[in-house]
């Protein structure tokens, strides 16, 4: 996904057939959008639903939101749940987003569960956000574990936050290591904090923003004598 975890990431539907759809996907990946559009249109002429969804994604990337919406709607009418999920993202800044995500959740779209949780979190509907993250966690969604930890931190439920971060860390999720380190700093448990910050530094990509932040915090702790 995902998963944005940033809201706004839309994954290209996988090709399920050879031919025009596969060619369109290849052109898309190589950023030859004109050729990709031509191939997707040919796939659509053959009643290929994934072609509609992927052409919607192409239009979305180009900022052609009305065209993207129409492609997604066409695909939704033919039963494509990925298009329903993408519509929700397209409608993110509108009241329609919640209902679109709910529809996608009911149709079994796992990514929609996570993103609906994010939407509720941004709207400060924390009880609803918690419910969605817990549902995503049942699907072993590690990002949901981390985000639920962040939500608990915001609610000053540090014990629950710690549990969620540790759960995500068991799956080697680096942002959770950083978040747990910051939690321990706030609790003045400096040795534990250094342990998890050091894990981020050792395991993370040195060019990653989280890793750089961990390096900075760790350095300041050492300088302060902790």
Automatic annotation (TrEMBL):
Residues 1-18 form the signal peptide. SMART domains: SEL1, TPR. Keywords: Signal, TPR repeat. The keyword Signal applies. TPR repeats lie at residues 49-82, 110-143, 174-207. PROSITE patterns: TPR, TPR_REGION. It holds the Pfam family TPR_8. InterPro entries: Sel1-like (IPR006597), Sel1_AlgK (IPR050767), TPR-like_helical_dom_sf (IPR011990), TPR_rpt (IPR019734). SUPFAM superfamilies: HCP-like. This is Tetratricopeptide repeat protein.
């Amino acid at each position: 996904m995902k998963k944005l975890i940033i809201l706004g990431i839309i994954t290209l539907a996988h090709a399920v057939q050879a031919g025009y759809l596969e060619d369109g996907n290849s052109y898309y990946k190589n950023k030859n959008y004109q050729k990709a559009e031509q191939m997707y249109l040919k796939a659509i002429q053959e009643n290929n639903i994934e072609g509609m969804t992927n052409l919607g994604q192409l239009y979305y990337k180009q900022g052609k939101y009305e065209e993207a919406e129409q492609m997604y709607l066409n695909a939704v009418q033919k039963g494509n749940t990925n298009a329903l999920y993408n519509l929700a993202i397209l409608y993110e800044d509108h009241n329609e987003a919640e209902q679109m995500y709910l529809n996608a959740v009911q149709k079994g779209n796992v990514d929609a569960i996570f993103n609906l949780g994010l939407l509720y979190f941004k709207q400060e509907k924390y009880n609803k956000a918690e419910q969605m993250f817990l549902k995503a966690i049942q699907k072993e969604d590690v990002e949901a574990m981390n985000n639920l930890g962040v939500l608990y931190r915001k609610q000053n439920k540090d014990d629950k936050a710690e549990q969620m971060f540790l759960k995500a860390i068991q799956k080697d999720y680096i942002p959770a290591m950083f978040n747990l380190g910051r939690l321990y700093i706030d609790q003045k448990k400096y040795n534990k904090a250094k342990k998890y910050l050091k894990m981020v530094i050792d395991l993370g990509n040195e060019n990653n923003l989280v890793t750089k932040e961990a390096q900075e915090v760790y350095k300041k702790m050492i300088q302060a004598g902790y």
